[in-house]
Amino acid sequence: MVLVLSVRDYINRMLQDISGMKVLILDSQTVSAVSVVYSQSELLQKEVFLVELVDSISMSKESMSHLKAVYFLRPTSENIQHLKRQLAKPRFGEYNLFFSNMLNTTQLHILADSDEHEVVQQVQEFFADFVAIDPYHFTLNTPSNHMYMLPAVIDPPNLQNYCDRIVDGLAAIFLAFKRRPVIRYSRTSDIAKRIAHEASKLMYQQESGLFDFRRTEISPLLLIIDRRDDPVTPLLNQWTYQAMVHELIGIKDNKVDLGNVGKFSKDQQEVVLSSEQDAFFKANMYENFGDIGMNIKRMVDDFQQVAKSNQNIQTIEDMAKFVDNYPEYRKMQGNVSKHVTLVTEMSKIVEERKLMLVSQTEQELACNGGQGAAFEAVTNLLNNESVSDIDRLRLVMLYALRYEKESPVQLMQLFNKLASRSPKYKPGLVQFLLKQAGVDRRTGDLYGNRDILNIARNMARGLKGVENVYTQHQPLLFQTMESITKGRLRDVDYPFVGNHFQQGRPQEVVIFIVGGTTYEESRSVALQNSLNSGIRFILGGSSLLNSKRFLKDLEEAQRIARSSTGVV
Amino acid sequence: MATRNRTFLFRRYRDALKGVRVPPGRSNAVPSSSGGGPVIEMSNTTSTPLRKPHRSYAPLSTEDPATSTVGTPTVGLPPAWVDVSEELAANIQQARSKMAELAKAHAKALMPSFGDGKEDQHRIEALTFEVTDLLKKTEKRLRKLSAAGGPFEDSTIRKNVQRSLASDLQNLSMELRRKQSNYLKRIKKQKEGSDGVDLEMNLDGKPSVREDDDGFDGMSFNNHQMAKLKKSEALTVEREKEIQQVAESVNELAQIMKDLSVLVIDQGTIIDRIDYNIQNVAVTVDKGLQQLQKAERNQKQGGMVTCASVLVIMCFVMLVLLILKEILF
């Protein structure tokens, strides 16, 4: 049950039975789901010669009856409306409708009603309603991702939409795997609880027929947790390749937009970073920055050798060899320049923002005790001119999360300093974070200081020393996975929904983080899976966070919360 | 990989609603038959109004709404390039089958045989020439596929068809090249091998040695040996020619490859991303619209301004004339 493969299978099955020239019509969500797993040239092989968005295809009126339309859409009411309009005036030879999730009867009625010309050949549900960015990591790209921080009373309709989208995505995941899971959630989070209950209702009551698969001996586990259980991970600077690119430049659906980083030639402005298509990236996505530098150097050397042998073509044999290797050569050339560009840009940023210095303190704050030293280090960095505003804010946040209860006076000092140093800082943001994700609100032992066992373990690690100061932080998810592997996840903290309990150790676990995942966590899951412990973990989230994104969500939520309390 | 097929339910709803909706007589519409045969015929006979095929049918649909609503989805005229692309696909198919034949011929030619293998050689030459020629021709026509302009979506489709055919073609020529170079290598090996055999025959082949011993006073090659030498010389020349020919076609193929590589999408690059392509289309559409609006504005403005200025100038001229008239007369 690898995510990428199952989505690819769905698309293959969609396209293979329809012969002739096709046009594929997607919506803004399915286009991401399809793009990350399928390439344009593969579509061409399947005779799909035009790909369009459902809202833009309605603009032109020209008849193209030599094409067969394949729609792949989410069953939203806007999409149904678009379809209704397009079916009323059919432009294509035939219409094949695929939906990425469950259609309700009303929607089906509307479609049947609008199909006056009887052009619709088939209506199917193919459950590829998630964006499979890596084999074990998916995201839902949920719009307005800040909703999870708001209490339910503020904006009920939008919150309902948000929950619905997540429940749909989770349902699709398990339908794609043909499994019905038992569901657990983190106790302190209202939204996780709500999603867990709604998902359970859908899977065990409303659509129980659809989810009634052949019983496997042990059902898989769906664990729904809240981003606020671990607010530290999205605030840290990252030093492994994939995570670092996302943190410093930004990855969207496995694409990196270099447009706002610097000036590049047209084909380098946007590059693809996919572990499925790029062997070098696959081998190095979890390596740390130093090692990547070495590996890239090796790759460049290899490439130079190939390039040299291609330069002196003298005999026909040389020529023949060149032609043989030409496509390979071109591919390699593109790849080399892509990675070199990325790493150069990142090291520029690291230099500019003094990230080595900042990150060291961040890691200290996240992993080790020592309040006095930490306070001093943070104050020093706040005074440092070359540290950027966002890094200052993050440092104070990390400090506040760590030493929330211990010395309010020093915390206040830091707040004041931050306010005077960074003019763009919105006052109260750190306090809002504490209110959202403070120690009283969190499930799980984020800093490993709540029970004696964890404290002892931390001390042992401190004595052993760490390999790399910049990558010593382990996300809370790592501990959670460990507890699941050992069967020690506490029922009090992570209760089951309904009366469906786990019998024995699950073999497949889907962990969904409401509020978004980070690439650091994705790395953690990939490493855990490579250990072959007998449990396969899959990570999913409502969006993909880096610190910028997380802070933006936080600001947005603060703004809405404030304005609504003003009204009330 | 669960799926759920809702077609049945959909059809039931649709049929139920059809009864309500009237008018009858629509039920004879068979939407699935998008009619391949007549459509192609039409496009051959009427080649001029092909750019906007729907134009020619527009009057029809206004004439009789009852039949035309049924007609629009079924009657459709694919643009002329569809024929071209089909022809190209057929060419590629043909080339592929020829390649299979060629592979067989190669294998046969390389087998040790008692005849001189001239027929095989000729066959290989002819086949290689045919395939290369076919590829060249297809490549040339392929370039024309996207040449003519047309509506925006149509040109996108055409470009994509071109790309897909180009990558087919590229694969095919790669395969051909690989086969040829294999063949070349093995011929060379055989040549070397046969030279070696000849040498051995001369040195320690018993009959020749004995002959040499017998006629030691002669010191010259006897007739038998001369004939053998000539024969092997002829053989060498023949092989030389073959190699030359194959090398030539390799060159040609290399050229085709280079030309095609412009058209083919590099896998794993941003151009190969589906969303990037959609985005690009949207951006170009937007840009086109903007430019159109700008042009419209310019045109309007330009027209107005010139008109006004001409009028003003005329006014002045008239005024001067009027004044002159008043003063002079």
Automatic annotation (TrEMBL), chain A:
Q: How does it sit in the membrane?
A: Peripheral membrane protein
Q: Which GO terms describe its biological process?
A: intracellular protein transport; regulation of vesicle fusion; vesicle-mediated transport
Origin superkingdom: Eukaryota
Q: Provide this UniProt record's keywords sorted from A to Z.
A: Membrane, Protein transport, Transport
Record's subcellular location: Endomembrane system
A GO cellular component annotation here is:
bounding membrane of organelle
Predominant location of this chain? membrane
Answer yes or no on keyword Nuclease.
no
Give the matching PANTHER family. VESICLE PROTEIN SORTING-ASSOCIATED
Question: What family is it from?
Answer: Belongs to the STXBP/unc-18/SEC1 family.
Question: Could you identify this protein by its name?
Answer: Vacuolar protein sorting 45
UniProtKB/TrEMBL annotation, chain B:
Pfam families on file: SNARE (PF05739)
Tell me the domain of life.
Eukaryota
Domain named T-SNARE coiled-coil homology is located at: 233-295
InterPro entries per record = SNARE (IPR010989), Syntaxin (IPR045242), Syntaxin/epimorphin_CS (IPR006012), Syntaxin_N (IPR006011), T_SNARE_dom (IPR000727)
Query: What residue intervals traverse the membrane?
Result: 303-324
The GO biological-process annotations, alphabetized, read as: chloroplast organization; defense response to fungus; Golgi organization; Golgi to plasma membrane protein transport; Golgi to vacuole transport; intracellular protein transport; salicylic acid mediated signaling pathway; trans-Golgi network membrane organization
Ranges for the region named Disordered are: 21-73
One GO CC term of this entry?
A: SNARE complex
Compartments reported by the entry:
Golgi apparatus, trans-Golgi network membrane
CDD domains cross-referenced by the UniProt entry? SNARE_syntaxin16 (cd15845)
**Keywords tagged on the record:** Coiled coil, Golgi apparatus, Membrane, Plant defense, Protein transport, Transmembrane, Transmembrane helix, Transport
Keyword Coiled coil attributed: yes
Membrane topology label:
Single-pass type IV membrane protein
SMART domains in the record:
SynN, t_SNARE
Give a GO molecular function annotation for the protein: SNAP receptor activity
Q: Which family does it belong to?
A: Belongs to the syntaxin family.
Record PANTHER family: SYNTAXIN (PTHR19957), SYNTAXIN-16 (PTHR19957:SF83)
What is the designated name of this protein?
A: t-SNARE coiled-coil homology domain-containing protein
Organism for this UniProt entry: Deinandra increscens subsp. villosa
